[in-house]
Amino acid sequence: MAAKQRLLEAETEALELDARYGHLKAEAIVELAVERFRDAGGIAAISSFGADSAALLHMVASVDRSVPVVFLDTGQHFGETLEYRDQLAEDLGLENLRVIHPRQETLLTRDPDGKLHASDPDQCCEIRKVEPMARAVEPYAAWFTGRKRYQSATRAKMPVFEAVGPRIRINPLARWTTADQAAYMRAHNLRENPLVAFGYFSVGCFPCTEPVKAGEDPRSGRWAGRAKTECGIHLPGLEELTTAA
Ligand code: SF4
């Protein structure tokens, strides 16, 4: 009963926050969310250290460098992304970078040769991203993502504040365009993931990411040739896991 009550409270809280603050500039949303949740359950930023990650992390660090920044290390990332993670963390003075890994025992039983991505990418994302993500957000009342509405049909109506189980997910950049992203990167002279220069406008795991062809959607290089468009860490499966957590 108490768990159900918390779900309802999170729904109400997210709706109220979205109605009250969802229209504000991204920087203001980050600041007020850190102030609200830092001592009230905790808040973190989840980052892939991909093509667009630097802007949100810069905003978070500008408010409080000790806010936890969580990176899900799937074990299948590009080496460039891992190097970029460490360089950007140093640039921004991030004081609390946390790296979450898949469960070793799960990998040994379900993906012993690391090739599950080829035969069943949904299962691969489940054990390498979704389950670790549920563990990653478990200590916090709220977390930031850098997602934007233009990126895909599944994100087109995304609110800025939304309930995920008993927690609040905050998407301060929801309304941003590619021009907003580029302008912020330029204005703050932020380091870019080196893969962007090679046409990787959305960066995920090495086996599932290709450069984007001219004129195509920035996320078209993710799981190219498959119907899959999301890894699942932003989809209802996570809600079920975090609700159970
Ligand atoms: S993106 Fe590919 S390699 Fe990474 S977890 Fe998902 S299926 Fe596996």
UniProtKB/TrEMBL annotation:
The keyword Iron applies. It is an enzyme of class 1 (oxidoreductase). GO terms for cellular component: cytoplasm. Binds 1 [4Fe-4S] cluster per subunit. One of its GO terms (molecular function) is 4 iron, 4 sulfur cluster binding. [4Fe-4S] cluster binds at C124, C125, C205, C208. Pathway: Sulfur metabolism; hydrogen sulfide biosynthesis; sulfite from sulfate. GO terms for biological process: hydrogen sulfide biosynthetic process; sulfate assimilation, phosphoadenylyl sulfate reduction by phosphoadenylyl-sulfate reductase (thioredoxin). Residues 44-211 form the Phosphoadenosine phosphosulphate reductase domain. It holds the Pfam family PAPS_reduct. Its cofactor is [4Fe-4S] cluster. The active site is at C231 (nucleophile). Signal peptide: none annotated. It comes from the Bacteria. It catalyses: [thioredoxin]-disulfide + sulfite + AMP + 2 H(+) = adenosine 5'-phosphosulfate + [thioredoxin]-dithiol. It is found in: Cytoplasm. Its EC number is 1.8.4.10. Belongs to the PAPS reductase family. CysH subfamily. This is Adenosine 5'-phosphosulfate reductase. It comes from Chelativorans petroleitrophicus. The gene is cysH.
